[in-house]
Amino acid sequence: MFYFGVDYYPEQWPEECWEVDARLMQEANINLVRLAEFAWSMMEPVEGKFDFEWLDHVVAILASNDIKVVLGTPTASPPAWLMAKDKSLFRVDENGRRLTYGNRREYCPNNPLYHKHSKEIVSQMAQHYQGHPTVIGWQIDNEFGDRCYCDTCRRAFQAWLLERYGYIEALNERWGTTFWSHTYSNWTEIPVPLKTGGPPNPGLALDFYRFASDSYVSYQELQLETIRETCPNHFVTHNLMGFQYPYLNYFDLSCDLDFVSWDVYCRTQWNIETEMDPSWFALGHDTMRGMKASNFWVMEQQSGAAGWDLIGVSPQPGELRKWAYQSIAHGADAIIFFRWRTARFGTEQYWHGILDHHGRPGRRYKEIQQMGDEIRRVGQFIHGSKINSQIAFLLSYDSRFSFEIQGNNPGFEYSTHFHSLYRAFYNKHISIDIVSPTSDLSSYKIVIAPALHIVSEEITKNLENYVREGGVLVITPRSGVKDLFNAVVDIPLPGLLADICGIEIKEYISLPKHSENEIKINWGEFPEATLKVGVWCDVLKTKGAKVLANYLQDFFSSEPAISLNKYGYGKAIYVGTMGQSRLNEMIARLLLEETGIEPYLRIPKGIEVSERWLEDRRIMILLNHTEIDQKIIIDGNFVDLLHDSLPIEETLIIPPQDVVILQEE
């Protein structure tokens, strides 16, 4: 079943609203509600005294309206009585400041007392709702992520390091602690990398970021085990935050979940002055689908203007529906809108839901109702269908953490660089997977490795095997620079990747802000084309590779900038500089032609098209991100699922902000 739902906070509304809300939900074809992830003080108002009567009543009302329930464990927002017990429960930020009560996720993820109370509330909930016919699954906590630098975490970090290295001498060697006389003789001497201490040893900082990520994985596991012991037939997920979130290794966090879910906000108070590029959210969806190589849920889909102290730009008519269908187009098997009613009090008074503060249906409700009716009719054709990609991007959290510690150049940012390359292929209307550098790559024709800064022997062998067997690999600047301990390698760059690329880097140049160079392309259909480049220039020395582009300026004028090396049955392309979008678009175009990958459709700019497969039946989802009608030429026999399965003629007109779902006959 395709679930179409809302996030609901009945504890914030009078009991007489609950029946009305459930009726309106049913009329909007809503069949799932997430409950309770911020209701700890309602379920345990006093330590050890649990009250589920009010929640039972809500669940019963929803059940009577044919609505299922996902329960959130409430640990993201603890009750005041718990946090008043001990100040060590509060997280310490990177500046050494201990948080105080008043927001959410103030807790230290390694605090034993917090673990004890977390396990108790989760256990009580699980025991109470085990076997309940309306409850189908669980969301653990809410949007994990903030690092803690407290004494509890410092001691846990030291224990983590002991397990990782075994001997203090091994740690000293790997981190290079002779630098600045930072050699450690005892594990208890090792600090956490507070900002007040200045730039930390890069090895220490990277390991701390790994440890901080592992801390949330362990805390999640504590709750997972509690739920699964009691409710083995319920699914368990956690709501992640897409590609943009840099603080956790989501591959690790997702490993033990039944499936990934994430929270999608296309326009908030934090980007109030700009319209976000739809490719950013496509990248977020593809990243979440890549965590477990399977479809995902959207646990929070934007349903109105979003903001805390400021009010974000209101979604235009049709945008809520279009954003939700974009989620589906990239692999969502459930859409849950945040939130049902807009809160009258608290921090999120201006984070608008489907209903405004007065609770009366309006424009947004009608738009969601329209989509609910559509999903009721076509969900069976979408749910469980798969996305088959021939292109993969490698997302390395070790590299991302390393760049967070040492940015290399003021104009470089890992996620921006990654996205700029992704967007070039997205614009070609090709499905893309986001995978780990150690994933099985054998099914892909093209693999892109943006700034693969930290490279291990395992990663190197994986990439060598991929190319040797016929794959096409693209590697970009600052790849192969560091080992697993965040130390620069002592061999010519790109380090362990040099053989597969058939090059060495003679010299690298970090360009000043606003400085540019030019390259001349000698590749494919673009002989003699010149392009502006900036930020970074790797000067290449070929060792068997063919030169595809040369620099045109500065002391390294005429030196190689881009190369192609044949390796086994495949090819490795090293792009030694960072161009504007035109260079990335050119690379995408040439690679698609070289590998024979065909876009789904040849369509105008501003249209997004995605493809899902239900067994051998193709489903195409087209989204118009523009403000004008768009004409599409359709090649093949399709029916329009949203419009009574009418057959599609050769030409299709898509109105502004509209969606079309086609099924191949």
Write the layout of secondary structure elements.
Blueprint: E1 3-7, H1 16-27, E2 32-35, H2 40-43, H3 53-64, E3 68-72, H4 80-83, H5 112-129, E4 135-139, H6 151-165, H7 168-175, H8 202-230, E5 235-237, E6 239-240, H9 250-254, E7 261-264, H10 278-291, E8 296-302, H11 319-329, E9 332-338, H12 363-382, E10 391-394, H13 397-405, H14 414-426, E11 432-435, E12 446-449, H15 457-468, E13 472-475, H16 498-501, E14 503-510, E15 516-521, E16 529-542, E17 546-551, E18 560-567, E19 570-575, E20 577-579, H17 581-595, E21 607-614, E22 617-624, E23 630-633, E24 638-640, E25 646-647, E26 651-654, E27 659-664
Parallel strand pairs: 1-2, 1-9, 2-3, 3-4, 4-5, 6-7, 7-8, 8-9, 10-11, 10-12, 12-13, 13-19
Antiparallel strand pairs: 14-16, 15-16, 15-17, 16-20, 17-18, 18-19, 21-22, 22-27, 23-26, 24-25, 24-27
Helix pairs in contact: 5-8, 6-8, 8-13, 10-14, 14-17
